[in-house]
Structures are given as structure tokens and as C-alpha cells.
Amino acid sequence: MNRKERLFTPGPTPVPPEVLLAMAAPMTHHRQAAFEKVFADVSEKLKTVFQTSSPVLILAGSGTSAMEGAIVNTLSVGDTAISVNGGKFGERWGQIGKAFGVNMVVINVEWGTVVDPAQIEEVLKAHPRAKAVFTTLNETSTTVLTDVKAIAAVTAKTDAILVVDAISAIAADELRMDAWGVDLVVAGSQKALMLPPGLAFAAVGPKAQAMMKSSTLPKFYLSFDKALKNLAQNTTPYTPAVSMVMGLSKSLDAILAEGMEAVWERHARLAAATRAGIVGMGMELFSKRPSNAATSVKLPDGLDGGKLHKKLRDEYKVTCAGGQDHLKGKIERIAHMGYYDQFDVLIVIGALELALKEMGADVKVGEGVAASQRYFASV
Amino acid sequence: MNRKERLFTPGPTPVPPEVLLAMAAPMTHHRQAAFEKVFADVSEKLKTVFQTSSPVLILAGSGTSAMEGAIVNTLSVGDTAISVNGGKFGERWGQIGKAFGVNMVVINVEWGTVVDPAQIEEVLKAHPRAKAVFTTLNETSTTVLTDVKAIAAVTAKTDAILVVDAISAIAADELRMDAWGVDLVVAGSQKALMLPPGLAFAAVGPKAQAMMKSSTLPKFYLSFDKALKNLAQNTTPYTPAVSMVMGLSKSLDAILAEGMEAVWERHARLAAATRAGIVGMGMELFSKRPSNAATSVKLPDGLDGGKLHKKLRDEYKVTCAGGQDHLKGKIERIAHMGYYDQFDVLIVIGALELALKEMGADVKVGEGVAASQRYFASV
């Protein structure tokens, strides 16, 4: 085939060649000065990415390991906690909490829509002993952006901590942990941090650290207490994913050289151009409050979304992500988090126009890419 | 410096350039046929490495995550289990079990010595309701090899499962999971599997799978049940460490091309030559039942082990590992698990002779490497 493989999945995302090469360096031992220096350096730089002065833990694991860590390190059996289920990842907060014996009060919102911070306030009033509120900054399954800033203003007035899954949003959507008053943020490596999957992160603020003291849920591998103590010595309790940390050092350098404001602004631009392209070709957006990390196209009724996904992937070598659970076949999700630039938007919008056309959809071929271009020219 | 950096630590170990380059390939998405094919293939090949027909789970995490998984997936609060503490990693079994509310009966053996299988039998008789026995094939902190085969013959006659930490021993020391009757084996990527740290493995035999049904310890990220169900679909419940799996594919190809018997035999040869070199230079071995994965030198009384370690590392660029806990400064540990050949033995023995000499030890410079050479010539 004379087509290049291109990845537009909301994790894993493309990894810059410089990062891949940094990861391919000869192995070093983690308990020696050279590595500890890198570890200390990336730990410090992560604070800027999370916009916090609190420690950011680096775990060897998928994003879900950090989500579990956020629960088992702050809560105890029988505690009440609130979570928002507006998609597959918000749903996961409830599942993990229940698996560990937490009384989870789940706020269900229609997938594609966003939770109203006022509803969080109400539920907190109805459950005044709730110890935590679990939300998702970018709900990857719907590409909906939660208003974390407004929710933090609510939780700040209570004893509950606010825990945010920023796995797919960190370094894509604006997140100001300290300024907004978020208490615990978890993230993953394989999204806008431009790394392969395998590292998870947890930034633990003072209110969450205080809550750790009374938590009795069992933990060992994911003990934040042990990880915090080790972090103070520039190390981890268990062998860190050394090559991933070396890659992280490279990717954080790129992110910080650009600057967080500029990184968020770039994602905002790519997201706006992607949305303009979708609307321009005559399609609809699925998310009612779109994130800047990824964009969902609502597919026309009757169009076989599975077939579209496969056509994009197999014929155009443009791999996006389909819908999950009841959204299967109904939406197609396009990532623009991390290692993407404006011409990548032309590629994915271009492929989408052609694939939709071939499937008989009422699509204006050329109008999508034109709309994206006009947007880029306007900013 | 005109000296090359060389790693002789018992994890991480050197990674072959071919594996590093395989890991540096452009990122692919984990939920598509190309990756699922690789995943299915490595899962199958791992069975040969573990010498089992049971499924081998691939987890994103350090080896400790698989140890925790072995406990939380088979036991319940208040269950009794037996563990052997003959070093830092055997000790960890007890710590994890206690963290999750398991009544751990710990058999303490002097570090450097090995547990007698008859003692396991006695303790099992004294605790007939014990559900599991936790052991360590190569106790990395002491380089002692446990007689797992004999212990398996004991546990096979009981209802208890035998769980083996083979993190640093897999593909180095002989281990025949099915033939010996081991029920659950955990391993890590950064040892003889010749990969960076970041993957953990759990091979779960039928007796362990049966015990999973009654286990009520809380689990989510480390749920073996979910992982087994996903494995049957050639995938994982949570995003796998994609690049690590690509590297694993390459390293397993190398291991299986050599063949497990030949791999064990190579490690036996390297270990024997290393021991010959140590004895040849006039030093003593620390381990009473040495593994083939790593070798410990007992340092002469009065010699500053910390200083020796630093001299080897900083002046000779030969990084070994010192002793842990009460063995700190008293032993130096040399890895030969994974990507090592016979000339690597000459390097580490050569560096050790010179460094010891410079520190005033009574060492016969040249006799160590000569003894290693004579051993190689003899086999």
C-alpha cells in the first residue's frame, strides 16, 4: 500500500521519534545517581504540567492503576463517595469504588452531555459525609469536557476531596490543579504526554494527603504513602519503568519548552479546526461540551459506524476510535492530543470526508478540509 | 572516560539492541488486529518460557504488582498462608499478605541459606487450613535458589497452592511449572527476559484458578479474572504497555530460538564460571545454594562494601548491586541473567579482582579470570 499508517486514537497516540529514541538508550539501573537525577527532574517538571506545587507520583501501570490508587489511598470501607458516570471512564470510578467496598453515589448523566456543577453541590448536600467526588476532565468515551473549575469551587467548601481523572486531558485541556483547588489528579502516559502506555501519574494535594492518614483500604503496590516517601529520595518503592521515564524526560522537555499555555492553546486550535471540518463537511458533533483532546463525530442514522471505522483504518490507514458500549457504531472519535499539528487535522478530516462519501453519506467532500483551513487562516 | 558503561545489576539488566529498536517502532493501537496478533503470539510463547499449558497474564506494572495480584486473586481476609522469608523478596510476600488481612505464617530462614522443603511440610501440617505457600525461586537479595520442585511435591499433596516468585529467575533458572506442579508463577520483564522494567507476568494454573472463585480480597486493576477473560480475546482489560509488548515479542523469539533447555544451560555455565572466578581470586561465595541468575560475593571482614561498589561503578563503569538491609556493605551481587555471554563474565571478574586489590583485599589478581576461563574451556 502507498499509504502511511496514521494513529488518531485517543490513546495510545503517536510518540515523537525523539522520545522513541530516548527510550531506546541502553538500560541504566534505577538506584544510581544518573537515573535518580532524571527522576527528580521529571518529577519536578510534572508539577508544571499538573500546575501544582504538590508531589506528582510516577507509577508503573496503566491509567486505571492510578485511579485505583486514588481510591484505596484516601478512603475506607463503608465511606461514601460521589462519582459522575457520563461515559466509560466516569463509570469506572464507580466500579473501582464498589470493588473496594466504598458506598458510591453515582450521578448518571446522558453520555455526550456534561454534569452540572450545581448537581454535584446538591448531591454533596444530600450526602454531607461524602469524602470524595470523582470526575473525569475529558471523558474519552464521549470527548466531553467536565467543568472541573466550577466543581472544585463546590468541593472546596466541603470536607470532600475532588479527584479528577485527567488521563486523556493532561497537557491537552486546561487544568490548574492548585489554582482551581483540585485535590488529586491522575493521568496516563499514552495521551498528550506523547509516550507509550505504561506510566500512570497521581498528583496528590494537601487535602488528599491529609485524607490518606485515615484511609484503611488495603494497598501495597499502589501505596501513595510509600511512593511519597520514596519520591522524597528521588526513587520509587518498586522498580520504575526506566525506559519510559527516560522517554518522559524528553517529552516533558518538549512540552515545557512550548509552555503549558501554548500547549493548551495548540490543542484548542486543533480541536476547533477539527470541529470546523466536521461541521463543514455536513456532519454533526456528538459532544455537548467538547474537549480539546479529542472530537467525536455523530454518524448519520443508518450509517454503519463499524464499517466506517474499518474503512478509515484499512483503506486509508487512518485509525480513529469507534464508540464504546451503547455508542458502538454511532460515533467515531478523533484524537488530537499530544503529538499532532494542524496538517494532521487535514489528513483525518480528508480521510473522513472520502470514507463517508464512499459509504453513501450526505457529505460535502472538500468542504470539511476547506473549513479547517479557513479556521487555521483566521487564528 | 575510555570505559564503557556495563550493567551487572540483577534487574534492570542490559536490553539487546534489537529489542530496544523493536520498542522504538511507531506506536500502534492495542485494540486492532495487528497488535492483538502480537499479543496472542507472545502469550502463547510465554507458556513455553513458564513451561505450562496454563494462561500467562501480561500486566502493566513492576514485578510486585504480579505478587500482589497472586495474593488478592486467590485469598480472602483471615485466610492463613505460609511464606518463606530468606531475603528481601521472600519478606515481601509476608508484607503484602499482611497488608491485605491474610494471616501470614512466615518461615524465617537465615539470609543466604535455603528453606528445607521438609520444613514447609511441617508448617503445612501445623496449619492444615493454609491456603497457599509463597516462595521465591531465586531470592535476588541473596542469590539463593529455592528447591521449588521439592516444595511442589509437598504442596501437591495438600489443598494449598504453591505460588512462586520467579521474577528474577524466569528464563535463567530451571522452572517447570506444570511438570513440577507449581500453581502460580509471577515474573517480571527486566531480568532474564531482557526487557526494560514495566511488565509483570502471572501464570495461573488450574488449582490457582479454582481458588480464585472463592477469593474475596478486593481487586480491580489486578483482577486476574478480568485479565483471563480478556486474554481469551487476545487483549487486556486496561491499556497494555504496547511498546514493551513489542519488545517482548523480539526477546521471546530470541529465547525460544535458543530453546529453554539451552537457555537454562547457558545460565548454568555463566553462573558456574562466575563462581569459579570468585573462588579463583580467593573470595568466598555468599549463597549456600546459588542460583544461576546472579551470584553473590561475600566480602572480606573489614572491607568497605559500599566503597567497593562505588569503585566498580564509578571507576570501572561496572555496575553490580550491593547487599540489602543487614547485608549492606557485606556482599556484592553480580547478575548474569538474560543478555550476557561468557566474555561478560571475564569483564566482571576482571573488574572485581582489580577493585578488590586496590582496596587492599587479599586477592589473587588474574587467578579469577583464569579460573573462569579454565571452566569455560572444560565444558
Walkthrough of the structure:
The structure is a homodimer of 379-residue chains. Chain A is an alpha/beta fold. The first copy, chain A, folds into 2 domains: 6-13 and 259-378, Alpha-Beta Complex (Aspartate Aminotransferase, domain 1), CATH 3.90.1150; 17-258, 3-Layer(aba) Sandwich (Aspartate Aminotransferase, domain 2). Chain A has helices spanning 17-23, 33-50, 63-72, 88-99, 117-126, 148-155, 177-180, 206-212, 224-231, 242-258, 260-280, 305-315, 342-358, 367-378; strands spanning 6-7, 56-60, 80-85, 103-108, 132-136, 138-139, 144-145, 161-165, 184-188, 199-204, 284-285, 294-298, 318-319, 321-322, 331-335. In chain A, α11 (260-280) packs parallel to α13 and α11 runs antiparallel to α14. Chain A is globular. The relative contact order of chain A is 0.16. Chains A and B meet through α1, α3, α4 and α10 of A and α1, α3, α4 and α10 of B.
Task: List low-confidence stretches of chain A.
Answer: none
Q: How many domains make up the 3D coordinates of chain A?
A: 2
Return the string of H and E elements of chain A.
Answer: EHHEHEHEHEEEHEHEEHHHHEEHEEEHH
Structural class by secondary-structure content of chain A: alpha/beta
Largest interface: A-B, 54 and 54 residues
Strand order of the largest sheet of chain A: 2-10-9-8-5-3-4
Overall pLDDT score of chain A: 97
Assembly state (oligomeric): homodimer
Query: What portion of residues of chain A belong to β-strands?
Result: 15-25%
What would CATH call the architecture of the largest domain in chain A?
A: 3-Layer(aba) Sandwich
What is the gyration radius of chain A calculated from CA atoms? 21 Å
Shape, per Cα inertia axes of chain A = globular
By DSSP, the count of extended strands of chain A is 15
Helix content of chain A: 40-55%
CATH homologous superfamily placement of the largest domain in chain A: Type I PLP-dependent aspartate aminotransferase-like (Major domain)
Q: How far apart, in Å, are the first and last alpha carbons of chain A?
A: 36 Å
Number of helices of chain A: 14
- Return the CATH class of the largest domain in chain A: Alpha Beta
| CATH topology type of the largest domain in chain A | Aspartate Aminotransferase, domain 2
Sheet of most strands of chain A? 7 strands, mixed
